[in-house]
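Kindly review this protein for my students:
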Amino acid sequence: VSNVDGTDFVEATRDLDPAETLFIISSKTFVTLETMANARSAREWCVRALGSEQAVAKHFVAVSTNADEVSKFGIDTANMFGFWDWVGGRYSMDSAIGLSTMIAIGPDNFRDMLAGFHAMDEHFRTTPFERNLPVLLGLLTVWYNDFFGAQTVGVMPYEQYLKRFPAYLQQLTMESNGKQVNRQGRQVNYQTGPIFWGEPGTNGQHSFYQLIHQGTKLIPCDFLGFCQTLNPLGNHHDLLMANLFAQTEALAFGKTPEQVRDEGTADWLVPHRVFPGNRPTNTILAERLTPHTLGTLVALYEHSVFVQGTIWDIDSYDQWGVELGKVLAQRIIPELESKSAPDLHHDSSTNTLIRRYRSSQGRAG
């Protein structure tokens, strides 16, 4: 549960037995608004069902660097898993923050994932640049972003288990390299981090691939595929991989007017069926999606982000851009919850939205 939207928590706990539920509260500072709002709701849910505050000590553990706040919450610090305070959230899944992942997949598989991270770390550290995968991936991202004007990168995993991988990469890449000043604090006069997005498998082919093939935007794409499926079912995997290979071929070479005419297409329809081609793609083809492979894949993109940030001379490890909204939210919360009409000093649009919301809640305008 990460969204402060109450629906996220309600749906996650709907079928749970409080007596058999363990909550892992993962927060570096243990004061993050969204995380602690969910943590307090979890504590209330647990205490209400089990009838005692003592239940917190038995049903909650923490992953944090702030022992004082963990203790105030009611969690025994003996049940606190610590990690270095310089580990950024988007780079932390292979730290103690990955505790929930380890419980889900088991310690052996988690160690296998860590080994995958380490393998890519060593590859990045020791391999000459011309064969260094994170370097090449980072350079290609800079190349298309800064010299061809490409504003986005599509990530297309042809593996259903990686359906949320593009969303994971959105935080990794855009929170890291979405910067407008360099490390010296000077405004940059070039493009930095592109927008990352994507969808799994053939789903995207029936929605946005039209734009990638024939639209006016240049969209470099990473295609991720696996030789062996984890769920053999008839010829499904052959069909899936045939689509992957076909899409990258079509994006690369397209279809000329002559080829379209040779198919007997009417002259008026020819322009509509031409594919320009020369659309850039990377294909990452692994043997099988395993914990080791996943660790390697995540580390590949992590190091690629570092390569891009180094070239752009930006700090890929801060995220000041998320602060302003948080500060304003803290100011707006009491304005929404006040029983009497608050004295609003926002812009006219925000003031109107706050009054409209308060009215819908039956609170004084």
